[in-house]
Each structure stands twice: as structure tokens, then as C-alpha cells.
Amino acid sequence: MYPALGLLLLAYIISALLCRRMIVVAVLDTPGHRSAHTAPTPKGGGVGVIGAFLLLFFPMRHLCGLPALTPDSVTFWAAVALLAAISWLDDVYQWSPLIKLTAQILSAVMVTAAILPVSAFSSPTWFLLAALCATVWAVFVTNAVNFMDGLNGLVSGTLCLTFLCLTLPFWPSDTPELRLIAALMTFGLLAFLPLNFPHARIFLGDVGSQACGLLIAAAALMLATPAIAPAIPDLHAALLVPCLIAGLLYDVAFTLIRRTFAGEKLLQAHRGHLYQIAFRSGVPMPVVTLLHWSFVLWGAGMYALLALPPVGSSWFAIAAVVLPQVLWTAFVILRARKHPVGRW
Which end of the chain is more exposed for a tag (fewer CB within 10 A), N or C? Predict the structure, then answer.
């Protein structure tokens, strides 16, 4: 136990040192029409968070009694490293979105290959269908986290709390693989968060938001895979991560649907997310961020209640988690009517 705690402390130190180093390197995020910040700000914080994760992933597996170097673990590590590397180069050189999407899809396929066991499915057809759904899920969540990384501490704090919840031992979904990933990410994000909220000295950048998105998507896949969590009903286990990051997923889904019905180009840059509208209408940035943190705690509470015997309906958990999102949507719409923000 103590060596593992020592590695987690080392993850915190590595992340903090690398984040501070990236402030000095100063690959800047220059404010544009979509930006919430007004001054050029370094954007390499994800180098610290993901760098610490990649450096300590295999030693942590060893200390937790898991085989360090297996084909699946190496593939998983390589997927995160690939997406982080491409995203960092994009932060520096501003590559085409097609390159980023290609990297996301390839990384998602690699993560899916590392997590989904062929033996858990009755036929190759079912495996291919499950693999396709898993890949689409991973790409969607990766982009959702990236899209939501627009206010100080919103994504980094939300994911820090989410990974912390996944680290706690009392969840019915308690598995060593997931807990070690969540613990490393929790400590990495804890080192970054004071540099990002409430006043940002550095941003995650794509290198952080996309790799973090891939990892939280992978966590959901681990819980939904029978070979990883064999004692839990698949649907119930798979709901844990969506319950925790419901604020991120709902905002992105709502915005996509709204823009589709409005006839807008979905790939065009915009400022129409609920959190952006709230901020533009005058809601203080810390309030929006802290509200999203509270969504994580609400989702954790609803899932915990659902897990108590007798086990309730999964649909009840979904409804309970979505309710505050609907109330938040109504508030933002009313706020925007009283304080017009122009085009969404």
C-alpha cells in the first residue's frame, strides 16, 4: 500500500513540475471570438497531467499486483500516448481537424481492442458491433471533454472529482485496473487544478482535454465489459461514468441537437454551449464551474442510492441525473432572454 501511495505522490509532483515547466515554455492560447479569457495563456497543462500518467502507469500496475507488460496494457498505454502526442503537436502547430479526428479514431480503436475481450461475446458479429459502439463512444466522449474545456477549472475539476469517485473502494464496480488509472489521474489533475482555477496560469490544451476524455471513456468501457466487472449487471455498471460526467455529456448533446434543428453547421466553431451562454450572460465563471462540479457529486449520490439494496431501476438513475441538467437548461435560457448574448 505505501509504495503505491508513494507513486501517487510522485505523480502529483511530476504533474506539478511539468505544468510549471509548460508555463515557462509558453505555447500560448491567444484569445479569439470564442474565448472566455482575455489574455494569451499557456496551454500545455495536459503535458503534466498525462505525462505523469504515462510515466507511472506500468510501475503502478506492478505495485498493484497486475502484470505490468501485457499486450492489452501496452496497447492501452500506446493509445493514450498517441492521442496526447498528436494533440500536443496540434496545440503547437494548429493542424487540420481531420488529423485530430484520425488520431481520435485510431486511439479509440486501440483502447477498444485493449478492453473488449473477444471471448465475452457469443459470435464475431456481436463482438464487431460492440467494438463499433465502443469506438464511437470513445470518440464522442473525447470530443465532448474537449468541447467543454472552455472555462477555468470546469473540465479539470469535473474530471478530478470523477476520477476520485472511481478511485473510492466502496463502489460495486471496484476493480484494480480501473482504480489505478483513476488514482493516477486524480493526483495528476490535483496538481494541475490550482494552476487553472479560479485564475488560470495555464490551460489543459488539447493534449490534456483529449487524452483525459479518452481515459474517462475507457473507464466506462471497463465497467461495461463482463470480463472486467463480471459481478455487476452490465447496464448498471456502465451507468456509473455517465452519471458522474452527466454535466459534460448533456451540454454537448443538447448543443448538438439544438444546432442541428437550427440548421447550423455542426463542424463550425461556435459559442453556443450552455456553459458559454451562462458565462456570456453574466453568470460568474466560478459559479458555472462549481455548478458543474456539483453535477459530479449529484451523479455519484444518485448512483450510490441506486446501488443500495434492493437495487433500483437504471432508468430511475438516468432520470434523477438528468433532472438538474434540465433545470440548468431552463435557467440558462431564461437568463439569456433577460441578458441577451446575441447569436448562440
Answer: N
Can you tell me the distance from the alpha carbon of 109 to that of 27, in angstroms, rounded to the nearest whole number?
30
pLDDT score recorded for residue 230:
43
CA 303 to each of CA 49, 182, 246, 250, 300: distance values in angstroms, whole numbers, following the listed order:
27, 18, 12, 17, 5
287: number of Cβ within 10 Å: 11
pTM for the predicted model, two decimal places: 0.92
Task: Find all residues with CB under 8 Å of 14, minimum gap 6, and list them.
Answer: 48, 51, 52, 55, 56, 188
Q: Which range has the worst mean pLDDT, 26-40, 161-175, 228-242?
A: 228-242
Cα distance between residue 204 and residue 74, in whole Å = 25
The string of pLDDT tens digits covering residues 233-248 is 456 778 889 999 999 9
C-beta separation of 211 from 80 below 8 A = yes
CB 308 within 8 Å of CB 298: no
pLDDT in tens, 207-217: 999 999 999 99
Q: How many CA atoms lie within 13 A of 279 on its CB side?
A: 22
User: Which residues are within 8 A (CB) of 248 and not within 5 positions of it... i.e. 6 or more apart?
Assistant: 144, 145, 148, 155, 158, 292
Q: What is the pLDDT of residue 312?
A: 57
| Helix and strand numbers, DSSP H then E, in the chain | 14, 2
Report residue 95 as a C-alpha cell. 493542424
DSSP 219: H
**SS3 label, residue 39:** coil
| Whole-number Å distance between alpha carbons of 29 and 4 | 36
Q: What angle do CA 49, 52, 54 make, to 5 degrees?
A: 105
